[in-house]
Structures are given as C-alpha cells and as structure tokens.
Amino acid sequence: MKTIEQKGRAFFDGLRNKEFHFFASSVATWVTTTDHRTLPDVIELMEGESYIYSLFLVPGAWDSNYEIRHYAPQVEGAILLGTFTPKKHIARKSA
Question: What is the number of structural domains in the chain?
Fold first, then answer.
C-alpha cells in the first residue's frame, strides 16, 4: 500500500506530463495562469481585489474553451484547491 507521500509524489509526477492551468474566481472576476502569468501573479491579482476567491487546478491548456458556472470551471477533473479571504478583506472588516 502506498503512503500519502508516495501518492502525492505520483500525483505531481503526473502533472509534469500533462497540461494544466490554475483558475481563480470571485464574484467580481476570474483569471487563469497563462504562458506569461504565473500562479503568484494570479494570487496577487485576486488578493488586490479584496473579494473572497476560489482557486482551482484545471486539466488542459489555459486557452481551452470551457464553461464557467457559479464561479467554477466546468471541466472534468478540475480540483478546488481552496477558497481564500484576502488580507485586504479581513482588514476592511476589522476597521
């Protein structure tokens, strides 16, 4: 039986051989990683908006055509990595 670490390595090794991109969305916008926009760039853009956002790992090229429904990519195999509250949003609530 494989350990969690071995399963994790197998998952990421599989990603190396496949095309995928990251997709982030909020109530205001959505953005993907591209050949010129990295994951840190995407996170910086979403954090700058101050809306709660979700981040997905999506199989396929960033410029592939797919439907977005309820702020989520409608792609088989897409994985919700998490929903995040920007620091700006938290600071605004505290004020």
Answer: 1
